[in-house]
Amino acid sequence: MGKKILIIAEKRQGQLKNVTLEALTAARKIASSDITVGIIGEANQGMIETLRKYGTQNVCRFAGQDLNTSNPDVAFHILLKLIETADPDIVLFGHSLMGKETVPRLASRLKMGLVSDVTKVDVNDDGIFLTRPIYSGKAYETVKPLSKKLVVTLRPNNIRAIPASRPAKAEITDLSIEAPDMRIHILRSNERNKDTVDLTEAKIIVAGGRGVQRAEGFKLLKALADRLGGAVGASRAACDAGYCDYALQIGQTGKVVTPDIYIACGISGAIQHLAGMSHSKRIIAINKDPDAPIFDVADYGFVGDLYDIIPKLVDKLSKPTTV
Amino acid sequence: MDIIVLVSETVDTEEDIVIEDKGLVDHDGLTHILNPYDEYAVEEAMLLKESFGGTVTALTVGPQQSEEILRHVLALGVDQVVRIDPGERFLDAYVVATCLAQAIRKYPFDILLAGNVSIDYGSGQVGPRVAETLGIPCAVAAVNIKIEQNQAVVIRELDGRDDTLQMPLPCLITAQQGLNEPRYATLQGMIKAKKKPITTVSANDLLEGSGDLQPQITVVRQFQPAKRGETRIFSGEPDQQVQELLPLLDTNQ
Ligand SMILES: Cc1cc2nc3c(=O)[nH]c(=O)nc-3n(C[C@H](O)[C@H](O)[C@H](O)COP(=O)(O)OP(=O)(O)OC[C@H]3O[C@@H](n4cnc5c(N)ncnc54)[C@H](O)[C@@H]3O)c2cc1C
Ligand SMILES: Nc1ncnc2c1ncn2[C@@H]1O[C@H](COP(=O)(O)O)[C@@H](O)[C@H]1O
User: Fold this and answer.
1) Please, are residues B60 and B69 in contact by the beta-carbon 8 Å criterion?
2) Domain architecture of chain B: domains with CATH
3) Which of A236, A233, A241 is CA-nearest to residue A265?
4) What SS3 class is residue A137?
5) Predicted confidence (pLDDT) per residue in A248-263, tens digit
6) Does B229 contact A140 at a Cβ distance shorter than 8 Å?
7) Strand, helix or coil for residue B176
8) With a 6 A CB cut-off, is B36 part of the ligand 2 pocket?
C-alpha cells in the first residue's frame, strides 16, 4: 500500500521501550518499507542496532540537544518538526505521557484522525482497522480512519514484537530545532517511579490492594516481583491508604497494563481496577474472601491469607529467576 | 472569573455492556451519568468561582437525553448550561471538539475545564483538541490548580511522574482523580435546577459557513471480549496452595 510511517520512539533507562518495537511490528504490517523512527534525546548505537533489526529505514534524531519533553510545548514543537521532516501518512506512538498529553493537540493542529489506546492493528484490501477497548474494557470496538492522515497510540504489551525478516538500513538524519516560543513553563518535576521495570511493560505484575494492610506488605510483594523479574502494582485503595506510591496505581485512573501474568493480592476487583488489568493474559488472585469479584476475572484463584501464601512463595523462589 | 466546563454523559460504570445484533453496544435501559472526571472539573469550577467570583457555564454536545447531566450540574450550582445538538452527526473526538470550540467562541472565559478522559470511549482527546482549536495552552490530568496573577499553576500527574506547570490564562485544564472532593447535589439545588433554563443550540447553526464537518473516524463494529475460561479455585493448606501456584508463575506456560 506504500504508506509512510513515522514512529516516535520511547526510552527508559538507556534502552528502547518494548512498545516502540511493537509499533515497528505493526508498522511493517501496514507498510513493509518507508518506516522512520524519531528519537528525542540520546540515541546510542545499541538502540540504532535494534531499530535496524526491527525494519527501520530511517532514524531522525536531535543530536546534542537538551530537550525536556516533559514540557508539553517542547514536545509539541519537536513532534511538529519530526512530522514535517518525515512527512508520514501514519504516526505511531505508545499510549503514554506524550501520547496522552501532546498527541491530541498535534492531531488537532495537523487535521489528522487520532485513534487512542489501540490494542490491535489489522490491514486488508479495505484499509487499516484499529481495535481498542471501550467501556473500561467491557467491550471492544474496531474503527477505520476516514481522514487522509492518521495518528495511532498503542497500548503497550498487546502487539507481539517480532524482528523483521531482514534488517533495514536505519539511516540517520540529525535534526535540530530552535528553542520554541513557550507558553508553558515547568516549575518542578518529580519522577516517582524509578523501579527498573516499567509497570506498563512488565511481563509479570504482583499487585497489592487494601488487603495488604500495611506498607511493609509491599516490601514482601516487591520481593516476590523481584524473584519473578516483574514489577509491583497496586489498587487505588492501597495507594490511598499510603501503603505505596500513586505511581503504582493500576486501573481507570492509574496505569493500564496487559502483562503475561497478573497476581492480584488482597484486591477485591472493583470495576475501576479491572479497567486497568482485565486483559492480562493470566490472572491469579489471592484473596481471603471466596466471593470477591476478582475471582470472576481470575484464571486461578487462591482463597486464603496472602501473608500465609506469599512468604512461602518468596521462600521457594529464593533464587532470583529471570523469565 | 468566567469559567466554562465541558461535560459529557457516559454509561454508569457498573452497567453490563451488551452488544446488539448490528454489532453495536445496546444502549436501551442503560443508566447514564455525568462522566466521573467531569465531576472533578465541575467541582473545581465551583471552587474557583467561590474564590474569585464570576460565572460557571457548562457545555455538552449530545442528544436530548444528555440534558439529564446538565440538570445535574445545575443542581451542583453551575450558573448556566448549554446543549449543542449534533443532529445526525457521528460524534468522534474531532467533531465534538470542533462543535465545542465553535460554541466557546461565543462565551467569554478565563478558564476552560474538562475531564481527563471519558470512561466509555475514553480517549482523552476532546480537551486538548479544543485547546488547540482555540489556540490556548493546555494541561492535562491536573491534581492541583492554583490561579495567581493571571497564571495557572497546575500539578499534572501522569505516568508515574508529576510536574508543576505554569501557563497564562486563558487556558484549558483537564481534571484527574484527586483534584478535589466533588460535592453532592442538595435537595434545594435540585429544586432550583428544575426551574433553570437549558439553552440548546444546533451544531448546524454553529458551524454555518465553516464548511461541512466530517468525522475522521468511523466505527466498524463493537464486540464483547473473548470469554475468559472457568476460574480454577484452589483452597486448603497454604503449603499445598504454594505448590499449586508455583508452576503458574512461569510465563512460558
Ligand atoms: C472515578 C473512580 C476512579 C477509580 N479509579 C481506580 C483505579 O484506577 N484503580 C483502582 O484500583 N481503584 C480505582 N477506584 C476505586 C475502586 O472503586 C475501589 O475502591 C478500589 O479498587 C478497591 O481497592 P481494593 O480492592 O484494594 O480494596 P477493597 O475493595 O477494600 O478490597 C480489599 C480486599 O482484600 C481482601 N483481603 C483483606 N485482607 C486480606 C488478606 N490478609 N489476604 C488476602 N486478601 C485479603 C478482602 O477480602 C478484599 O477483597 C476508582 C473509583 C472511582 C470512583
Ligand atoms: N460530547 C461532549 N460534550 C462536551 N464535552 C465533552 C464531550 N465529550 C468529551 N467531552 C469532554 O472531554 C473530556 C474527555 O473526553 P474524551 O476525549 O472523550 O475522553 C470529557 O471528560 C469532557 O470534559
Assistant:
1) yes
2) 2-223 (3.40.50.620)
3) A233
4) helix
5) 999 988 899 999 999 9
6) no
7) coil
8) no
Rounded to 5 degrees, what angle do the CA atoms A157, A158, A160 make? 85
In eight-state DSSP terms, residue A132 is E
Is residue B57 within 8 Å of B82, Cβ to Cβ?
yes
DSSP string over A272-302 = HHHHHHTT-SEEEEEES-TT-THHHH-SEEE
* CB-CB neighbors (< 8 A) of B138 in chain A: 72, 105
User: What type of residue sits at position B11?
Assistant: V
Nearest CA in chain A to B10: A135
Residue A144: strand pairing partners? B218
Of the listed ligands, the closest to the CA of A104 is 2
CB atoms within 10 A of CB A164: 16
CA A311 to chain centre: 30
> Residue B2 and residue B15: Cα distance in Å, rounded?
36
Find out whether A133 and A106 touch, Cβ atoms under 8 Å. no
Residue with grid cell 508539553, as numbered in its chain: A72
CATH architecture of the domain with residue range A5-174: 3-Layer(aba) Sandwich (3.40)
Q: What is the mean pLDDT of residues A256-280?
A: 95
Q: Which residues contact B132 (CB under 8 A, 6 or more apart)?
A: A104, A105, A108, A109, B138
Q: What is the ipTM of this complex?
A: 0.93
Query: Which residues sit opposite A261 in a β-bridge?
Result: A204, A282
What one-character DSSP code corresponds to residue A97? H
How much is the pLDDT for A81? 93
**Which listed ligand is nearest to A306 at the C-alpha?**
1
**What number of other Cβ atoms are within 10 A of residue A90's Cβ?**
23
Q: What is the DSSP letter of B182?
A: P
Domain coordinates in residue numbering, chain A: 5-174, 199-318
pLDDT per residue as tens digits for the range B121-173: 888 999 999 999 999 999 999 999 999 999 999 999 887 788 999 999 999 99
Cβ–Cβ of A282/B92 closer than 8 Å? no
Any idea what the Cα angle at residue B184 is, between residues B183 and B185, rounded to 5°? 125
The reported pTM is 0.93
A272 lines ligand 1 (CB under 6 A): yes
CB atoms within 10 A of CB A7: 31
A148: nearest Cα among A174, A113, A116, A114: A113
Question: Amino acid identity of A151?
Answer: V
Superfamily of domain A199-318: TPP-binding domain (3.40.50.1220)
- The answer to whether B128 touches A108, Cβ cutoff 8 Å, is yes
Domains A5-174 and A199-318 share a fold: yes
